[in-house]
Amino acid sequence: MSATPLVSVCMPAYNASRWIREAVESATSQTYTNLEIIIADNASSDDTVAIVEAISDPRITIQRSTRTISPGANHNRVIAESRGEFVKLLHADDLLMPRCVERMVGLALEDEQIGLVFAPREVLMEDAPDPDWKERFLNPHQEFGTLERINDGRDLFRRLLAAGFEGNWVGEPSGVLVRRSALERVGLLNERVRLITDLELWARIMLGHKVGFVEENLSVYRHHGASGTVRHAQRLRDSFDLPWLIESLLVSDGLTAGERSQLLALRRSVLRWVSGAQLRRIRRGDPTDELPKYVAYRVRAAVGTAPPLAPPLAPLGG
What we know:
single chain, alpha/beta, Spore Coat Polysaccharide Biosynthesis Protein SpsA, Chain A, eight-stranded mixed sheet, three-stranded mixed sheet, 12 helices, 39% helix, globular
């Protein structure tokens, strides 16, 4: 392994003792070896840290937190700690196929304008409350239609926009490799987004980069009852995830007038639904703090004082 690894496998983890050994070993068993493996433990209360510390591999580093932060913030923390030219996210309950990094990096190195590479994944159902989920979401990439090995990211972005971002057609973070320079350009995850933080980031990267696609199952997504996807899915329709996604895109560089017009129209449509859902929650005595936070942002944005939605990633050595 070189002093500075080309690839950083970044694993956010929280109370993952049930799965984390298998996940880490899927990273240490990669055919591509010039990598580091960073685990950001989010103040777990189980044996997550002890299990990782018992795995003997000099490429592994574990970052421990004294308090639990949001999942998006923990993703950003582990990426910020990485050193590789490429970031390979791996969730602590998922797995990488042995050739995952090799195949993704090989494609990314063919064109320096590729900002992300993604691939299909297998789905492992484990105690999931919705047994039909696998049948409905096994191949989300097929929603794009035709995909080449190297694609115009803006074309893929426009396909997602035309569909109102109804679905993560790229897939979960464990199935994606991101070029570090792309993150330096567009920023990290928008921590205001709860469920579709990955889709929000993929969309921003697509706007200014090419996208690689490896037509081969290269990871395993574990769908289970304790996953964040399951716990938050029922609240997506009345959350502000889509409005926050749209706000991130509206402040992105390089939007055309037509794309901006489509985003503004989508925002109006989405806000009608979300605002109504929030009002119904208030009447039920179950309000959230999302509405006032969003309104406060829009007010500050109107006068040019709104803070960045996506934290910046500092260049290495900067």
